[in-house]
Every structure is written in structure tokens, then in C-alpha cells.
Amino acid sequence: MVGRFWAEALGWGVASEEPGVTNLEPVGFVYPDPVAVCIDVITVPEPKTVKNRVHVDLATTSASHQADLVARLMDLGATPADVGQGDVPWTVLADPEGNEFCVLEPREIYQDTGPIAAVVIDCADPRAMARFWDEAMDWTLHEVTDDHAVLRSAKGVGPYLEFLRTPDAKTVKNRVHLDLRPYPGDDQAAEVSRLRALGATDVDLGQGDVPWTCLADPEGNEFCLLTPR
Q1: Of 15, 90, 146, 203, which is least surrounded by CB within 10 A?
Q2: Among 154, 155, 118, 121, which Cα is nearest to 223's?
Q3: Are residue 91 and residue 147 in the same domain, yes or no?
Q4: Residues 6 or more apart whose Cβ sits within 8 Å of residue 65
């Protein structure tokens, strides 16, 4: 259900679907085009218990587009969410399983991102997160302050990756995480070693014997390093 919701919400296609896993991509997307960060929806047994530390922000082009998108998303099953945002120009919603996301008011910076403006990660220290993730990926660091850090593909396309300073601490496994994939011809084991040297740590999520490696960034945010493709 969540996979179908997000496919409709973004206007994307279901690239593949098997028991427990739904892969979403823009129609006509060819990996590894950085124009999009694709979404995999995976069934897990754990219920959602706290506000997600990772969420997506959706872009809009006008006030009417924002209002129409909010209405359409609610028709699809989204519900209003209160995460303490107060009186803000964006709208906070939750998908049918309670995963929070924002529908932003029009912002010039997000006019060319596609439907996803940004992937946003709560953190205690944006500067430390910027140091790690700027080295972990070949994206460009656009801005970093005590309160936030902003990265984007070096190609200057697609959504942004943003780190926002928040007071709440991480207490459970993130329900939303990033997957990184080495370039074709890169050595996966060498990439794992490089990420560990940058400050990543190994994590056991009960993944068992799988071809990818589960790691956590310096603030404990889980991510996976996949095999090259």
C-alpha cells in the first residue's frame, strides 16, 4: 500500500515488485542518472513508534500547485501531521503508515529538482554530518552552518540531501535510510574500508548473509553499501 501511495504521489512507475519489496522510479529512468533518488519500499515487522529522523520534502511551483498537491495526497490516503512545526508555509503530512513528509511552498532553489525537493535527515551536528557525507559521496557541498548542511549531485540535478539540527536524539533504527552504490568497476570491499576510515561503523540489523553491507554514519544513521551495478 505504501509503495502504491508513493508511486501515485510522485507520478512515478513501479519498476519492480516482489513479496515485501516495491521499487519506484520515474518513468523512463535509466540508472545511474542523478536526476532522481529512487525509492525502495520494504516490508518490516517493526511498527513505527517515533517521528522519523529521515523524511522527504516535495517541491511545488506555485501556491495553487501546493494546495492542489496537498489535496490530491490526502485523497490518496495522506493525513495531516503535527511534528511541532507551528505556523509554517509548508504542509506536514504523513503517508498511510505514518511516515512524515513535507509539501513545501514554492522555493526557487527547488524549481528543477523533480517532485522530491530534498531528502532531509535530523541530526545533532550538521557540520560533522557534512564532513562525513561530503567525503562518503561524490556530491557537492553547497552550504554548511551550525544549523544545517546542504549537498547535491555534482551534476547539479535532482534532489538535495539536507541535514537539519534538531534537539531530539536517535532512539530506534531509522525507518528511512540511504542506499549507496559504488560505480561500475569499483571494489565494494575497498569502498566499505574507505567509509569506515571516514567514521562509518558496522551495524547488525538482522540482515544475515546478504550481498550488501550495513553501516551507520557518525550519528548512527543506518545506510547500506550495495554491490556495483
Answers
A1: 146
A2: 121
A3: yes
A4: 106
pLDDT tens column, 84-126: 999 999 999 999 999 999 999 999 999 999 999 999 999 999 9
This prediction has a pTM of 0.96
Q: Has residue 43 been placed in a domain?
A: no
Number of domains in the chain: 2
C-alpha 22 chain-centroid distance: 16
**Cβ–Cβ under 8 Å, residues 126 and 141:** no
Give the strands of the sheet with 201-202, arranged side by side: 178-180, 222-225, 213-216, 201-202
Q: pLDDT tens for residues 12-61?
A: 999 988 899 999 999 999 999 999 999 999 999 999 999 999 999 999 99
Alpha-carbon Rg for the chain, nearest whole angstrom, is 17
Decide: 14 and 27 in contact? Cβ < 8 Å: no
Question: What 3-state class would DSSP assign to 59?
Answer: coil
Dist. CA 223–CA 44, nearest whole Å: 16
Are 84 and 165 in a shared domain? yes
Strand partners, 16: 23
Q: Scanning the structure block, which residue is given the C-alpha cell 489535496?
A: 71
Q: Do 79 and 192 lie in a common domain?
A: no
C-alpha angle 135-136-137 in degrees, rounded to nearest 5 = 95
Give the CA distances from residue 1 to residues 63, 73, 136, 174, in Å, rounded to whole numbers and listed in that order: 29, 14, 33, 20
Q: Which residues pair with 216 in a beta bridge?
A: 201, 222
The C-alpha cell of 31 is what? 540508472
Give the residue numbers spanning the domain of 73. Answer: 48-176
